[in-house]
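Technical appendix A lists one of the benchmark inputs used to test multi-chain prediction within the project. The record comprises two sequence entries:
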Amino acid sequence: MSADTSRIRVTDLNGVMRVEFVDRDILDEAAIRQINTELIKRVEAAAAPCMLISFRGVEHLSSAALGTLITINSLSKKRGGQLRLSDIKPSIMEVFTITKLNKLFHISDTTEKALEGFGRK
Amino acid sequence: MMSPSNQSADDGAVRLREINEDIESMQSSIAGALVRHGYPDAAMFAIRLSIEEALMNGFRHGNLEDPTKCVEVRWKINADEATFHVIDEGEGFDPESVPDPTLDENLEIPSGRGLMLIRAYMTNAFYHGAGNHLEMNFRKKAQP
């Protein structure tokens, strides 16, 4: 998969993979499948992967996208790593609250807060 | 292909053959009617999400991604409420049989949240008949 067609941008922040989305709306089934594949590949390529997914700029999110986050969270934990989420706007945070997934994920208001203590057990 | 619809009016109908078909024009048409009738941003968010989830359920769980089957969407929007019908060509299902995804033991299951989001965001949502015809509506004044 070429970087040109990727639906995500990944930046290394001192050993933490920060993931940002190219699209404002994470709704399209094909795009979500592609994101799922890309993230799994990233997590599987790292020992004890530390991944921070930032939702800066994201306006809509479907339940299929939530499914991808759950998959990545489980896989990261299984490999001794961790997934954190940040920069979630209130309307999308409500989706996490309604589904009670705010209990499952480590969610921070900002990237800076999410990075605090990340990678240390 | 998307069949002809009444794109500029408050009522409309489309038949979609696949989830990746141009649903943006349908969503734009619906959004246009919602704006004309003064629905707030939170309502627009709720309705857009619910339509996406209903379509996903129709294609994936209803039609089992059979490319020969369609999902039909019909809508009617006025100043008080927005009503939507999403009809797939599958065999239907029992909505009560869907496990509660918010239970602790189900939180790590990646699927099964579409219907609960629809029920949370819309004023009413229920299935007709065998369970392949979802009717949902959003009443503007019923929301906080």
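The helical segments of chain B are 23-36, 41-62, 114-121. Chain B has three helices and five strands. Comparable benchmark entries are summarised in Table A2.
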